TrEMBL record:
A Pfam family recorded for this sequence: HTH_8
Name listed for the protein in its UniProt record: DNA-binding transcriptional response regulator, NtrC family, contains REC, AAA-type ATPase, and a Fis-type DNA-binding domains
Keywords noted in UniProt: Activator, ATP-binding, DNA-binding, Nucleotide-binding, Phosphoprotein, Transcription, Transcription regulation, Two-component regulatory system
GO biological process: phosphorelay signal transduction system; regulation of DNA-templated transcription
Residues modified to 4-aspartylphosphate: D74
InterPro entries: AAA+_ATPase, AAA_lid_NorR, CheY-like_superfamily, Homeodomain-like_sf, HTH_Fis, P-loop_NTPase, Sig_transdc_resp-reg_receiver, Sigma_54_int
Length: 495
């Protein structure tokens, strides 16, 4: 029960007023004019706009006209029960804090009010300090509750634009996109290869409200000598092969968004022209002296550290500051908590339908492997692994062995990546086997192979914090094999 029901002979000192409450509307529902004037006087030094309703109907009319931030509600009204007003506020999901006034000895009414959704109650008679304190705290709790509800709603977003994932890392990305989309400010997206930078640009454009199109240009995929023409266009005869006038990405994106992917690959001389374009909104086609003005929103992306490129002299510092108005970093897949499983389930359903396979779910061991694997290629690598496993197998369950085999076929860390055996050196013996050095000890020291393997598995598990999928990746075996080895070997593990 809230502390507001405590006796009035010892009232706590109210907290200092909160500055952002200035101008909040408070509706006082009280049918006795002298009491209403007393309560209004109690709150006269508080930064509230006071509204008064002397009947239940007047209160409902005021609530419909303009919902207040808080309601001080007497339960005994001449035309209706105050609980009906409280239920109306909660049923309509009005964001108002409600403090109920009840008579001394009617605690059961206060309990009913709290069950109906009141934020607090106060028992007559009460002092000014008690009313101030109770109202302030009710407003604070209501505000915090709204923030928590908003956070929960955001966390529940498992899909956003082209993204899939409900991790906190991606919730932060979604929030930045929400806030930045409608702005004209340039966005600079950074992140490892395969994290979804183009998907991010598409999400920004889709929520921008801009009527033009999104034009994407990969600066790394176009030869340097042709990139200026791709960005700004050219006129006929401006260079060999220019047989006709051609519009560039800048003109095509008029009214929309120009997405420059892998922008750190752009030549310095073209960076200077791009900077001028961003500053002025106008450009010239290659071979033309006429300036053309467009309305373009800029989104750039790179899988490098752009500031490192600036320090190395490969990227203009002034261009960096022009583009990096809103920085947005996409986290690698390994830092996205359980998103990898959500994405894999979505991909499995999509690819199974496309390939005409009967897969319906991932096995528990496959999900464990997904969570323990480092995914250096991020979502793009995950897409390839799931499609490879779907094409070469059939369901209903996608097993860990199928997924591990797919990763091995693609040359991931399970086969040739980090943690894999090193390639034989030129000085190795036959078939790449190095000559054996002299060994100390005797034949009695030789342990059975199963015991050596079991000890090695246990050591790997200890080094990986008992994370079976991670240990499996390091040992180049599937998690199911580890479980089977531990089950089959451990009972007989005796000297």
């Amino acid at each position: 029960m809230c502390s507001a029901q405590a006796t009035t002979d010892s009232t706590p000192t109210p907290p200092p007023p909160v500055p952002d409450r200035q101008g909040l509307a408070v509706l006082l529902v009280e049918d006795t004019p002298p009491l209403a004037r007393v309560y209004q006087e109690y709150l006269s030094d508080e930064p509230y706009r006071m509204w008064l309703a002397e009947t239940g109907r007047a209160a409902l009319a005021r609530l419909k006209e303009a919902p207040p931030a808080a309601v001080i509600l007497d339960l005994k009204l001449p035309d209706m029960d105050g609980l009906d007003i409280l239920r109306h506020i909660r049923q309509q999901r009005l964001p108002a804090a409600v403090v109920v006034i009840t008579a001394h000895g009617s605690v059961s009414n206060a309990v009913s009010a709290m069950q109906a959704g009141a934020d607090d109650f106060i028992v007559k008679p009460f002092t000014a300090e008690r009313l101030i304190y109770t109202l302030r705290n009710a407003l604070e709790r209501r505000h915090l509750s709204e923030q928590v509800d908003e956070l929960k709603a955001n966390i529940q977003r498992r899909a956003y634009g082209g993204f899939i994932g409900s991790s906190l890392a991606m919730q932060a990305v979604y929030t930045i996109i929400d806030n930045a989309a409608a702005s004209r400010a340039s966005v600079f997206i950074t992140g490892d290869s395969g994290t979804g930078k183009e998907v991010c640009a598409e999400a920004i454009h889709a929520r921008s409200g801009r009527t033009g199109r999104l034009v994407a240009l990969n600066c790394a995929a176009i030869p340097h000598e042709l990139l200026e023409s791709e960005v700004f266009g050219h006129v006929k005869g401006s260079f060999t092969g220019a047989v006709a006038d051609r519009e560039g990405a800048a003109a095509l994106a008029n009214g929309g968004t120009l997405f420059l992917d892998e922008i750190c690959e752009m030549d310095l001389s073209l960076q200077a022209k791009l900077l001028r374009f961003i500053q002025t909104g106008s450009f010239q086609k290659v071979g033309s002296g006429a300036a053309q003005r467009v309305d373009v929103r800029f989104v750039a992306a790179t899988n490098r550290d752009p500031w490192t490129e600036v320090e190395a002299g490969r990227f203009r510092e002034d261009l960096y500051y022009r583009l990096n108005v809103i920085p947005l970093h996409l986290p690698p897949l390994k830092d996205r908590d359980g998103d990898v499983v959500e994405i894999a389930r979505d991909l499995l359903a999509r690819f199974a339908e496309e390939e005409g396979k009967t897969f319906t779910a991932l096995s528990a061991e496959a999900e464990a492997l997904l969570l323990g694997y480092p995914w250096p290629g991020n979502v793009r690598q995950l897409q390839n692994a799931i499609r490879n496993a779907v094409v070469l197998n059939n369901g209903p369950l996608l097993e860990a062995g199928m997924l591990a085999a797919a990763l091995e076929r693609m040359g991931g860390p399970l086969a040739g990546g980090e943690g894999a055996p090193a390639a034989p050196s030129p000085s190795s013996g036959a078939n790449g086997t190095p000559p054996l050095p002299p060994v100390a000890g005797s034949e009695a020291d030789i342990q059975p192979m199963w015991r050596v393997e079991l000890a090695h598995i246990r050591r790997a598990l200890a080094l990986c914090g008992n994370n079976v999928p991670r240990a499996a990746a390091r040992l180049e075996m599937s998690p199911s094999t580890i479980y089977r080895r531990l089950r089959d070997m451990a009972p007989d593990d005796s000297p």
